Amino acid sequence: MQLPNWSRNLLLRRRRQREKSARQELFAPVRLSLRKLEERRVLDVSAAFMSGVLEVEITNTSDVATLQDSGGNVSIRDAGNNNIDVNGSGSPPIAWSDVQEVRVRGDAATDQVVVFDTQLSLDAGLQVEDTIESTVLADSVNSGAGITLGSDVVLEEDIMLVGTNLTFGGSIDSQPNATHKLTIDAGVGSIAFNGNIGEIVPLRGLDIQRAVGGVTFGESSPVQLINSTDPITIGSSFEIGGTGVVFNGGANATLRIVTTNDDVTINGPTELQSDLSINTGSRGGDIIFTAASPIDSEV
What we know:
Strand order of the largest sheet: 1-2-5-8-11-14-17-19-22-25-28
Shape: elongated
Order of helices and strands: HHEEEEEEEEEEEEEEEEEEEEEEEEEEEE
Mean pLDDT: 89
Helix content: 10-25%
Number of helices: 2
Strand content: 35-45%
Structural class: mainly beta
Largest sheet: 11 strands, mixed
C-alpha cells in the first residue's frame, strides 16, 4: 500500500527540517559566559549532606576545600575563596550541630588539600581518604567514633584529637616556620601511625594520653622518625593496653625517636619489630620506660 502524496510530502518536509536542525546544532558557535565557566570551576569542590553525614569531594583538579564555621553553620570554600553550596545552589544552610560524620575524598589529582579551620565535634567520626594529598588541622577534633586521616597531615595549631581507633596514613608535620603539639586520646581504641612524624618540621611535643587497644608506629607502612622539640609521652594518663606500644621502622631499618633536650616516656608493654634509637639531645633529657613497660623483640 502506497502512502498518499500529501502524507509522503509531510514526512519528507519533517525529515528535511530534522536534517536542517541537526546541521545548525552541529555548526553552531559555542557560547560560554563567564558565569557558566565559574559555575563549572566551582564544581571541582562539591559537598552534600544527608542523614547526618557531610561529604566533601575534590575532583579533576588541584584545589583546596576549607571547612569553617559561619554562625554555627557549615561553610566550605575552595582555593579561590568561593563559597561551596552544600547540596547545591539555593539549599538551606547546614548547622554543624546536625553533622555527625564528615567524609572527604578526592580523585588523586596532585595538591588536593582539605583544611579543617574549625573545631569539630562528631558523633560518628571523621574520614579523609588517601586520595586527598594533605589534611591541614587548624583546630581540634572530638569524635565519638574513629578518626582516619588517610594521607599527610599538617598541624597549623596545637591540636587535640579525641576518638577511637585513630589511623594516620601518612606523615605528620608542623606547619612551616612553626612547631605545634599533637595530643591524642584514643579512649578504648587504638592508634596507628604509618608515616614519619616531624621529618620536615618537628612537632612541639607528642602526647598520647590513652589507647586501651594499643599504639603502633608502622602498622601498614614503616615509621622511621619521630621528631619533636619538646617531650614525647606515650601513655601520659593511662598505661597503653592491648597490643602495647609497637615500633616498626621496616626491615633492616632503625626507627629514631629524637627530642631537643627533652624527655621520652613510654608507659606500656613495648615490642620492637625493628631497631629503635632514642636521642634526647646533647644537654640531656630522660628516657623513661615505666614499670608497666617491659621491652621485647617481635616474636
